[in-house]
Structure formats: structure tokens, C-alpha cells
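Lecture notes, unit on protein representations.

Consider one protein chain, 195 amino acids long.
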Amino acid sequence: MTSWIDIVASVLGLTTVVLAGRNSKYNFWVGYLYTVALFFLFLSENLYASLLLQPISLGINVLGHYRWTHPHQGEESSQDAKALKVSMLSWPERILCLASVVVIAGVWGWTLDRQFPADPLPYLDPCVTVLILLAQLLSALKKWDCWVVWLLVNITNMALHISMDNIFMSIAYGLYLVNGLWSLASWMKLYKNKA
């Protein structure tokens, strides 16, 4: 059964990612509302790892809002000196990110499975949660790689929400997937132009 919070979260989430994909700093303002909507959605579905993500997500959103509008010297966009330019992770940083996701999600899933038996997906839920945190952190730092992680998040979240019968969130993640592909190409152009 679709709830009103499912619809609200879907609309806010789509708005946030479309704005982020278009390199708009206004994505953060919508992101604040999206975080609150997701908190209540996950509370109603007993998805505890995703629920616990929301205060952390809010903190990352604040960090990103600040970083995108206050670049350090040498990080300025070629198009706007008051904006952070798009950059990329190195290969060692990518390997570290991948290893962190595997370890943290594995430990978190094991813990949830033992402490919160009501969580219907004790390993998928924390895996998605850790991937979201990584994608948000990379987005906050304006790393091109965030879109690769967002693509993984979108695919796994579609599976998660389909299994929970959250119809609008499932559709939203399908649209996020399309936006993620577009944004991956768009941010590559920004990276090449030092924008």
C-alpha cells in the first residue's frame, strides 16, 4: 500500500538528484526536506539501518552545502570562483572505498540480524545504507565517482523498495537511475572543463 510519505519522499528525492546532476547548489535545500521525509518513511517500514542513516545524511548534506559554496584555493570552478570544481578519486582511494563498504555493511548486517529481527532485509538494508553514505560523501566533496556509486545505490534500492511494496519509491529509483546515467556524463564534462 502506498503512503503519502512515500509520495512526498519520492518527489523530494527526484528534485534533489535532478538539481545535483545539474550542478545546482540548491539541491541541498531540497535535500534537507528529503532527509526528514525519508526518516519517517523508514520508521514506518522498520528499516532501521536506513532510518539511522538520516541524521548522518543530514550532516553530510550540511558539509556538502558548505563545500560546494566555499572551495579551498585551487579547488575553484573555472566557471565560478565561489563554486567547488568537480574532481575524481584516485584508484587507491576507490579501492579503500570499496573495502570500507564491504566491511562496514557486513558487520552492520550481522549486528542487525541479531539485534533487530524485525528488519526484513538485514544485509541488503545496511549495504544500501553504506553505499548511500559513500555516495553522499563523494557528492558533498563533488567527486565524479559519486555518480558511479549512485548507480549502484539506485539499482539496489529499486530491489529493496520493490520488496517492501513502496511503489512510488521504486519508480523514483528507476528515474534516479536515468538521472544518474545522465549526471555521470554531465559531470565528466565538468571535470574535463575544470568546472
